[in-house]
Specification:
Layout: H1 2-24, H2 28-32, H3 34-47, H4 53-103, H5 109-164
Helix pairs in contact: 4-5
């Protein structure tokens, strides 16, 4: 008798957990029923506050384009800065090598080789430093441009969240 009561209790617990699972998640038949899904979507859409929705949508699109234009402008300015700095670096290196070449002819060969060796080492180290500087300039430029886009994406998320809040 006790085992029959235990079996009945298990069956009742199983059926109540099954019914609560059905309420929480739609069954496969519900998911395949397009009319029920459509009705549910229509009910949710009717609950949305879409007052002035077209104007908000146009304004949002305009803000998106403005953000893209601003990001492109920052990217372009960063590229200009990198190119200008690179040009300055090249001019400086050329001037340094020209000065060294003018000073060499009157000296002995050993001194000239030693000077060329030292100049080559300095130039190599400067080139590495210049590459780091240019990479940092480019990275900063791209980070600034991405920040504009990131802020606009956050604004879009905030706007959509606000629109989708229920009445």
């Amino acid at each position: 008798m006790a085992t029959a009561k235990k079996a009945a209790a298990k069956k009742t617990a199983a059926s109540s957990s099954t019914s609560s699972a059905k309420a929480a998640a739609p069954s496969a038949a519900d998911m395949l029923n397009p009319m029920k899904n459509l009705k549910g979507m229509a009910d949710r859409l009717q609950e949305l506050n879409l007052t002035g929705g077209a104007g908000k949508l146009l304004d949002s699109g305009r803000k998106d384009l403005e953000a893209l234009m601003q990001a492109n402008e920052k990217s372009y300015q960063g590229l200009q800065t990198v190119v200008q700095r690179q040009t300055e670096m090249i001019k400086s290196a050329i001037a340094e090598w020209q000065t060294a070449a003018k000073e060499m002819p009157g000296k002995d060969a050993k001194a000239n080789l030693a000077k060329l060796d030292e100049l080559g080492r300095q130039s190599f180290q400067r080139a590495i430093d210049d590459i780091k500087e240019l990479a940092n300039l480019a990275a900063k430029s791209q980070a600034d441009a991405f920040d504009v886009v990131r802020q606009r994406i956050q604004s879009n998320v905030d706007e959509v969240t606000k629109m989708l809040q229920r009445k």
